[in-house]
UniProtKB/TrEMBL annotation:
Keywords: Transferase. GO terms for molecular function: transferase activity. InterPro entries: Acyl_CoA_acyltransferase, GNAT_dom. This is GNAT family protein. Its EC number is 2.-.-.-. SUPFAM superfamilies: Acyl-CoA N-acyltransferases (Nat) (SSF55729). The lineage of its organism: Bacteria, Bacillati, Bacillota, Bacilli, Bacillales. Residues 1-166 form the N-acetyltransferase domain. It comes from Bacillus yunxiaonensis.
Amino acid sequence: MFIREATEKDAEGILYIRKSIISQNEFFLVTSEEFHVDIEMQRKKIITNSQQGGVTFVAEDGERIVGFLVFTRNSMKRLNHTGSFGIGILDNYRNQGIGTKMLLQLIDWSKTQDGIEKICLGVLSTNERAINVYEKIGFKEEGREKRQIKFKNGQYADNVMMALYL
């Protein structure tokens, strides 16, 4: 498994993972019906995010992209010392440490960037596996938005806000 910074050429692979995950599970806020990103839009997101001080990483198995992590730095002056990330891994590649490797790469990268002090995330309270990974790496819960997410079946989940101070 190889982790590297994404280029615009990786847009198709990242988009495939995003669509796959959105259609399969309940851990993303956006639903399949709401997701309208095409390859060109994904390509532009990679470029724009990088230009604005963020980074996108991909995990490769051979030539195949099997995971991604997008870190977006806050553009507001009073919040520019922070950024948040989202992560996605193909189903067959989960529970193999890929997410942990991408997160550790993000942390290392962030330490080399001028002014980044805090990495933030939001995770659904129902995603216990992800919460455990974040806690092992050193992220701490900072708060919860109670019953923030409502599923089709009428059940709710909290949005758990976590952060790691560098």
